[in-house]
Amino acid sequence: MRWRKPRRAGEIMSIDWITVAAQIANFLVLVWLLKRFLYRPILDGIDAREAEITERMTAATRAKDEAVAAEAAYQAKRAALASEQAQIAEAARHKAQQERDALLAEAHDRIDRERAAWQAHQDAEAQLFATKLQRAGGHALLEMTRKAVRDLAETSLEAQMAAHMGTKLAAMKDDLTHAAGEAHEAIITSHMSLPEAAQDAFRTELAQNFPQVAPRFETDLAQAPGVAVQLGGAQVVWTVDSYIEGLGAALNEHLSRSHDTRLGVA
Amino acid sequence: MTLSPDEIITVTLWGVPINATLLFTWIVMAVLTGASMLITRNLRPDVPPNRWRTALEVVVQGIQNQIAEIAQGPSRHLLSFVGTLFLFVAGSNLLLVIPGFRPPTSSLSTTTALALSVLVAVPLFGISRRGVGGYLQSYLRPSPVMLPFNIIAEASRGISLAIRLYGNIMSGAVIAAILLSVAPFFFPVVMDLLGLLTGMIQAYIFAILATVYISSATAPQTLSSPQKDAQ
């Protein structure tokens, strides 16, 4: 480093124009260098970053719009599904109601049918029981009557039946004679074969009232206990059926009275 | 004592003497360019900015915002010129803290060169923005009588720019040198700190004034109307 020769005091603020020109050139070169290596890269970087931020914000805005649209679509779909669900539920409820009504109607119908069948069965059982009761009652009544007649009148029931029939035949002699016409045989039908004494009594009664008619005795298990005399087109009958029917009516009346009494107590 | 670095011949290249002004100018240029190249060498959009790049972006954007604030319009076309003015002057003044460094801005030749650059840049930017006719008409406003005064004002701008910067920086260096000879330890440090502050302020003022001159030349002329004046 060396010094130039000292200047005078008036030359302190002197300007070296060569240095000025060189400094202008230096400054212009520095402008170019800084523009090349500082301003342009920095500004380009800032611009790129701003563009990227703008792009990201645009993408974010777009994504937000898409999300809003997707949310709206979802809400609409949800509303449609809710409506469809309500319709399906209403249809299912309606169908269930119909099926319930149908099942109830079918159950009522089945119950009615079963009740009718049960009622018919009950009626049949009652009828069967009544028939059995009537038959048993008839036999019991006949046996008791027979026993009572034997104990009280010292005669048989069949003899009394013959006597009773003789009385009825005598009372109806004219009508029976007219109905008998040309008949020469009287058919006497009984549930069981009549004893000989009873048959003799019938022969005696017929001979007194209808001498031209000969008796013929038959048995019919289907006939109720008693005796029937058929003379030509006429028939005179005495059986225990009317008594048994009276017994059945009395029993029914007694039973119904007892049932009404129970219901009243209850 | 040597007041101007122009008088200090540092080296001679191919028979041409290189004074300290030029040498230290190149050093400042190398520092600014080298730092810029180092920081921006890996600058890509996909690489996240580091702290150096962020600091540089703050500096550049600060300069750009200042220019935009003054120019009231697009500022990027002024950034290279005004920003380089600020960075060069600020860098020269900041390197004052290095012992033996003579800031180039303490040379009247440097400040004159910078002022001439501004003087030339003002019409160039004005013509580029408004055209030759539009720019030259500004010398005739508000009336052709003002033409000589406008020319004198334009020249005085450059002179005031050059003298202001030179005077401030050179005086700081001279005072520091005087105090160094009087009280070699304490006062030079204080004066150097003060020089850093005034150097930054001078760089700011120089750049701001250059921006004001250029933007006044490039701003579109508006005719004042009575209604507008009434407002």
UniProtKB/TrEMBL annotation, chain A:
GO terms for cellular component: endomembrane system; plasma membrane; proton-transporting ATP synthase complex. Residues 79-106 form a coiled coil. It is a single-pass membrane protein. The keyword DNA-binding does not apply. Keywords: ATP synthesis, Cell membrane, CF(0), Coiled coil, Hydrogen ion transport, Ion transport, Membrane, Transmembrane, Transmembrane helix, Transport. It is found in: Cell membrane; Endomembrane system. GO terms for molecular function: proton-transporting ATP synthase activity, rotational mechanism; proton-transporting ATPase activity, rotational mechanism. The chain crosses the membrane at residues 12-34. InterPro entries: ATP_synth_b/b'su_bac/chlpt, ATP_synthase_B_chain. Belongs to the ATPase B chain family. F-type ATPases have 2 components, F(1) - the catalytic core - and F(0) - the membrane proton channel. F(1) has five subunits: alpha(3), beta(3), gamma(1), delta(1), epsilon(1). F(0) has three main subunits: a(1), b(2) and c(10-14). The alpha and beta chains form an alternating ring which encloses part of the gamma chain. F(1) is attached to F(0) by a central stalk formed by the gamma and epsilon chains, while a peripheral stalk is formed by the delta and b chains. PANTHER family: ATP SYNTHASE SUBUNIT B', CHLOROPLASTIC. Component of the F(0) channel, it forms part of the peripheral stalk, linking F(1) to F(0). The b'-subunit is a diverged and duplicated form of b found in plants and photosynthetic bacteria. This is ATP synthase subunit b.
TrEMBL record, chain B:
The chain crosses the membrane at residues 20-39, 78-101, 107-127, 165-187, 193-214. Key component of the proton channel; it plays a direct role in the translocation of protons across the membrane. It holds the Pfam family ATP-synt_A. One of its GO terms (biological process) is proton motive force-driven plasma membrane ATP synthesis. It is a multi-pass membrane protein. It is found in: Cell membrane; Membrane. It comes from the Bacteria. GO terms for molecular function: proton-transporting ATP synthase activity, rotational mechanism. It comes from Thalassobacter stenotrophicus. This is ATP synthase subunit a. InterPro entries: ATP_syn_F0_a_bact/chloroplast, ATP_synth_F0_asu, ATP_synth_F0_asu_AS, F0_ATP_A_sf. Its main location: membrane. Keywords: ATP synthesis, Cell membrane, CF(0), Hydrogen ion transport, Ion transport, Membrane, Transmembrane, Transmembrane helix, Transport. The keyword Lipoprotein does not apply. The keyword Transit peptide does not apply. One of its GO terms (cellular component) is plasma membrane. Belongs to the ATPase A chain family.
